[in-house]
Amino acid sequence: MVNVGSNILPSLQLGVTAGMHAAVHHLLCLGHTKIAHLAAAVDAETFHLRHQAYLDALYHAGCPAISAYQIRAPFTIPEAYRVARYVLVYSDPPSAIICDSDMLAAGVYKAAKALHRAIPQDLSVASFDDSVIARILDPELTTVAIPAHAIGEQAFLLLLEVLEEGRIPAQRSVPLKLVIRESTAAFSSR
Fold first, then answer.
1. What global pTM score does this model have?
2. How far is residue 180 from each of residues 98, 126, 183, 184, measured CA to CA in Å?
3. How far apart are the C-alpha atoms of 95 and 116, rounded to whole Å?
């Protein structure tokens, strides 16, 4: 619920924590232990939740949360490219990167290409959104789908409940699903 003055407004909660856990777990199951997080440089609760879930998933798996692997960029491909390149030339680079959006993942693809690192053979990449970008990238991007249709449907049902019943309904949650595509593969120590 969102409290605005004396009014309480209905709200939807996206399952971003479970979505990030699913993405990290997927990479861990593929043998990756050096997993970076390219976070959105935006001060919003959803991005804080994603980062905390990333840290929690690594902690519970017994993997280190290396500070050099925790990078941030604005929502632009050039900035994502710049910070991804920085982490990929680190003396002990990650074998996988999770991005807060498909747009940021596009910057990672460009950085990997510039450094002659093949996705997924040399670097696995996962993301959030499941936008059209995820299917345009080559190879297609593994991503946590944020279902716009389900969000719209749930928002409509919340509004309908307020209008018909005259009460504020309980907060609802929209689950997110990891869509596994070709951008992730088993870790190889080549």
1. 0.85
2. 13, 9, 8, 8
3. 14
Q: What is the DSSP string of the chain?
A: -EEETTEEE--EEE-HHHHHHHHHHHHHHTT---EEEEEES---HHHHHHHHHHHHHHHHHT----GGGEEEE-S-HHHHHHHHHHHHTSSS--SEEEESSHHHHHHHHHHHHHTT--TTTT-EEEEEE--HHHHHSSSPPEEEE--HHHHHHHHHHHHHHHHHH-SPPPPEEE--EEE--TT-------
Question: How much of the chain, in percent, has pLDDT values that exceed 70?
Answer: 88
pLDDT of residue 4: 37
Domains, the chain, with CATH or none = 17-143 (3.40.50.2300)
Amino acid at 17: T
Q: Backbone phi, then psi, for 40, in 5-degree steps?
A: -75, 135
Both tokens of 155, joined, read 């928002």
